[in-house]
Amino acid sequence: PLRRAVALDHACLEPQMHLARVRQTRGDPVGAYGWYTSAIQLGASDPLFLLDAASVADEEVVVRADPTAREKALGWLDLILAVEPQVTLAHFLRGVHLEALGRQDEATLSYLRAVETDPSCLSALTRLARIFADEGDPVRTREFVGRALEIEEDPTRREELEKLLEEAPKGSL
Predict the structure, then answer these.
(1) Cβ atoms of residues 115 and 123 within 8 Å
(2) For 168, which DSSP code?
(3) pLDDT digits (tens, 9 = 90+) for 125-150
(4) Cβ atoms 68, 97 nearer than 8 A
């Protein structure tokens, strides 16, 4: 029925929004991405809808199908942040897309903003710890590993974080 509604009126937003979510729920990220894109072009602007769209755009199969998916997702996230600058997930996803695009400095700033809006954003804390470890910044590595370890409960992920400290140059921490 939703596809029929779209066929009858290509400019009808609601069925396209529902189709995006149905495709995502059914495990079809490429199909979902197509419907998300179409609905957003028609004016869908609900922050939760845009967050879902940006999340789908991070899937590797989607990026292979549309190499511009990450750039589009950044635009969607910027729409959210222009209206609601405190949305932690939007800052985090922005960092994910920027990092994947090789824009490391901007990604770091987005992760820092995610942690600023929610100091318990474990995903951002962990990514920052890795970034600073890769950059050879022992002080910031220690800071973010410590903050992440205060929250992280999974033994495997805790071990991975602790290894970041072990891999730091001797005498630097």
Answers:
(1) no
(2) S
(3) 999 999 999 999 999 999 999 999 99
(4) no
Distance CA 59, CA 135 (A): 26
d(CA 95, CA 171): 31
Task: For residues 71 and 54, give the distance between their C-alpha atoms in angstroms, rounded to a whole number.
Answer: 10
Can you list the positions of beta strands (E) in 75-161?
none
Helix (H, G, I), strand (E, B) or coil at 146: helix
Cα–Cα distances (Å) from 44 to 8, 64, 108, 149, in that order, read 19, 24, 29, 39
Residue 2 gets which letter from DSSP?
H
pTM: 0.87
pLDDT digits (tens, 9 = 90+) for 120-129: 999 999 999 9
The residues near 163 (Cβ < 8 Å, ≥ 6 apart) are none
Per-residue pLDDT tens for 33-90? 998 999 999 999 999 999 999 999 999 999 999 999 999 999 999 999 999 999 999 9
Closest C-alpha to 77, from 43, 31, 45, 115:
45
CA distance 128 to 161: 11
